Amino acid sequence: MKNTSLTTKLITFLLFLAVVTYFGFQAWNYFTRPEITTPVYVYRAERTLALAGRVVRDEEAVACGDTLFELQRDEGERVAKGKAIATVYQSAQTLDAARELTVLREQLEQLEYAQSAASDAETALRLDTEIESDVIALRAAYAAGSYDALDACSAALRTSVLRREFAYRGSTDLSGRIETLNAQIRASSDAIGGASRTITAPFAGTYSAVVDGYESVLTPDALETMTPDEFERLRPEAVSGAVGKLIRGERWYYAAAVPADDAAVLSTKTTYQLAISGVDVTLPVRVHSVGREQNGRCLLVLTGDRYLSAVTMLRGQSAELITESHTGLRVPKNAMRIGETGATGVYCRIGLQAYFKPVELIYQGEDYCLVEPGEITAGRDSDVVFYTLRAGDEVIVSADELYDGKVIG
Fold first, then answer.
1. Is the pLDDT score of 60 beyond 80?
2. Are 297 and 262 in contact (CB under 8 A)?
3. DSSP letter string over 311-364?
4. pLDDT tens-digit profile of 24-34?
């Protein structure tokens, strides 16, 4: 009995010693010869300059001393010289009559369209497709939070639904309803009569309903000689009354006081990307001017001639100027190695083996590199595909004595 007990203890001790030795070896192997991998993925690296400035336009407020008026233009809409911007009414009753007249004219348009569609089966069937498109546009406007677009999409959907309803009813009773509407429209027009006047555009331009008083003091010409201190002390003028403003041309500006060293590295020949808060897209801009230095700062003026409608309501905005941008495959900096042939590249884990894939360096960050696949001189197409670095590959970050075909754990 005693011999059996001693044998059991000896076997148990040997098994415990084997387990401890195994895990100890694995731990030693991990810390002395770690084979750490990380996936390769596409990455965009940018260098930016933070700005706090103002949007500047060549603009002029359209004065109006009356308070009862109805705008005829949407934000960012182009207006020809002499065309209507707003209609001014003498009384609230006249304004209500004008709004009723607008509704009557919309109904007349819907009935006339339905009358023509009732005799055309193809047109009537096409209304279903129009309604579906209007619903999609309405949902997109709601998701984007664009209330101006939401109003327009709602009106379009309402019109399409009414057109379909009238079209499928047939044209039997439409003629009488059209005559009734025409009579109501004539009566409303006569009632308005001379109790209204139209404000027209003094020049061709882009309309904006926002007037903040900077229109006359913050101009493109004033920026040419303005210092950083003058720019930051600038205050708007009081606005007594206006129905909006008109912006000349398509060009707009963004001005900000920046450190002189940051402005010195910018080129007037390069197109940069400006990300303005409140604008969904980045705006292509160029350096218009860099003012004289004052206390280590200067006035940087950027200019763009696209997306004017996106900045018509903006003034004081923070922004980021993207001065440099690179896109490539991101790999850790310590994964970059020199291969057996002297080429620069990375070792990737494929199955249980390591293989060298050459790369070309695009950009070097603090702890990473952006690369693109390097040239491969292999004769077979399958070898070219095999040794080409791609997104999703497992690049070996740390290992000891790597070479092509090495078996790794």
1. yes
2. no
3. STT--EEEEEEEEEEEEEEEEEGGG-EE-TTS-EEEEEEETTEEEEEEEEEEEE
4. 655 555 555 55
